[in-house]
Design a protein that fits this description.
By secondary structure, the chain is mainly alpha-helical. The protein has one domain. It contains 9 helices and no strands. The protein starts with a helix and ends in a 13-residue tail after the last helix.
């Protein structure tokens, strides 16, 4: 449980440090017609989104907290520190950040049709994914479980990757099923 909280906090810290007020709040940019201004600037859109909200000092606190919590939990779990485990951990962490960003982008598409109503949708999606990411979702099954993997992939943010990293997954190759 502690490793899950640390992993989720680390994902939030990376999002806060690298994507504050640009890619993580893309619906706000679309709703306020600022996205059009980004498209006419003389630099690629990906470069603008990657550099505009970079705030390592603000997001660094959450990132450091998440790393410390995971390190503390890691010592208690007795996980092996191998190159393979570190590589899977790094890929899982980057994938979790990607799942949060892509989910916010997907839900922000509605802002093109209803700019005022959808202006804050990416923030609400981010908050919901962050809140659900700290909970163990082991008891959820059926339609709710499928929904938390597909429609609103909250289980892909922290729960499934942590289960694979810690070795709790029933499938020995469970880490291949994570993002």
């Amino acid at each position: 449980m502690l490793f899950l909280v640390g992993y989720s906090t680390t994902v939030e810290g990376i999002l806060s440090a690298a994507f504050t007020h640009n890619a993580s709040h893309i619906s706000r940019r679309i709703g306020r017609a600022q996205f059009d201004q980004l498209l006419v600037q003389p630099q690629p859109l990906w470069l603008t989104l990657a550099t505009e909200g970079f705030a390592p000092i603000c997001g660094g606190a959450a990132l450091a907290t998440g790393i410390l919590i995971m390190a503390w939990a890691w010592t208690g779990l007795g996980l092996p520190l191998t190159i393979t485990w570190v590589a899977v951990f790094g890929v899982s962490l980057v994938s979790s950040v990607g799942v949060v960003l892509f989910t916010m982008f997907l839900w922000s598409v509605g802002t093109f049709w209803a700019p005022v109503a959808g202006e804050e949708i990416s923030m609400n999606v981010h908050d919901a994914l962050g809140s659900l990411g700290t909970f163990p979702l082991d008891g959820i099954g059926g339609a709710m479980g499928v929904g938390l993997v597909t429609v609103f992939p909250a289980s892909l943010v922290a729960w499934m990757p942590v289960r694979a990293l810690v070795g709790v997954s029933a499938d020995p190759w469970g880490y291949l099923l994570t993002p």
